[in-house]
Amino acid sequence: MQGSCLCGEISYEVDQLDSEIGHCACHSCRKAHAAAFNSAAAVRREHFRWLRGEALLSRYESSPGKTRYFCSRCGSQLVAERAGQAHWILRVATLDDDPGVTPAYTIWQSHAAPWLAHGDDLPAYPEWQPGRA
Description:
This protein is mainly β. Helix content is 5%, strand content 37%. The N and C termini lie far apart (36 Å).
């Protein structure tokens, strides 16, 4: 599977996901991703390769021992790591290919955004909603 940042300057390849996909609704993931939650999965380092643009990566230690890596041009977060772990924490939304699995859990639900609404009761459109100018 391949993935990339928003501007396409950084790309990577993974052989497989080495954990289930999970959503994290903690305050730092919500802020870092400007979203209600982050979707992530572990990828062992031997199953991950940068294809291009690695020199454009910037990093930020968002909490002690946790570093987030993002594109210095477009800001897309691509991976994170915790000191001493044998895997990257892949930001699944940056995959260009379908991993073939769906999320298995949500963590830090106690931090969930109170305004988040989703599910079958929320209208959904294939593209823009009808009547949008």
